[in-house]
Structure formats: structure tokens, C-alpha cells
Amino acid sequence: MFGIQETDAANLKEMLDKDTENKIRLIDVRSQAEYARGIIEGGEFLPLHTLPAKYLDLSEDEEIVIYCGSGNRSAQACMFLAQNTNIKATNLRGGLFSWYQAGLEIVAPNTDWN
After folding, report:
1. φ, ψ dihedrals at 48, nearest 5°
2. CA separation for the pair 109, 27 (Å, rounded)
3. Residue 78 annotated as catalytic
4. What is the H or E stretch that residue 27 is in?
5. Cα distances (Å, whole numbers) of residue 113 to 26, 35, 51
6. Confidence check: pLDDT of 1 > 60
7. Domain coordinates of the chain in residue numbers?
8. Among residues 68, 75, 77, 78, which one is catalytic?
9. What pLDDT digit, counting tens, does each position of 29-74 carry?
């Protein structure tokens, strides 16, 4: 998508495998119900509709990768951050579906919503 940085599932997996210091922050912008069905390990729940109120929890010093189910909502999140902040985020092209299609692991999240 024009104007934002993107990566594919294989490249993200390689990035995560090399990230021994946990510097990559994975943000999942799907709904609570979608999130509860499975995530990329380490994915943090931050639904797209909450991003305008919660983006201050993110830092421009972090390496942020955002994903959703198909890559559309996460692209919107990346575009919002690019237009309104100095935060640079990368979109997972194809979203969680592409991750699954690549045969990569989807794990159960901690769904303690308290």
C-alpha cells in the first residue's frame, strides 16, 4: 500500500527470530473476538477503533509491526500513525491470514480482559 512500510509473513518471522532483545512490538488491531481466537506470539491487543486514543502508548523509538486479519485494518492503523505522529510502523501485508497461509504458528492469547 502506498505511503506505508510493509512486510510479508516470511520476512516478519525472520525478523522475530533475530529479535533476541524483544525490540519488535507486535500490535494486533483486530476485534476482541478475533484476538481471542489466536495471535502471532507476542501480539498486543490494540483494536483499530481505540488507536486514536491510545497511540500515545506507542513510541517512535520502537520497531512496531501492526497486523489484523487481512492487512487492511493494520494498513489503516499504519496510515493513521504516519499522518498524525512520528511513529513509524510496518504493516503485515495479508495480515494473520498470510501468516497462517505461510504455515507459521498462531498461539492462544492471554484473554484475561481485567
Report:
1. -50, -40
2. 13
3. no
4. strand 24-28
5. 18, 11, 18
6. no
7. 6-102
8. 68
9. 999 999 999 999 999 999 999 999 999 999 999 999 999 999 999 9
Cell numbers found for residue 60: 517512535
**Cα separation of 77 and 5, whole Å?**
12
**Domain 6-102, CATH class in plain words:** alpha beta
64-99: b or e for each residue (b if 16 or more CB lie within 10 Å)?
bbbbbbbbebbbbbbbbbeeeeebebbbbbbbbebb
pTM flag (> 0.90): yes
Strand order in the sheet with 44-45: 5-7, 89-92, 63-67, 24-28, 44-45
Give, as one character, the DSSP assignment of residue 65. Answer: E
C-alpha cell at 84: 498524525
Grid cell for residue 65? 509491526
Q: Which amino acid is at 34?
A: E
- Within 10 Å of residue 104's Cβ, how many Cβ atoms? 16
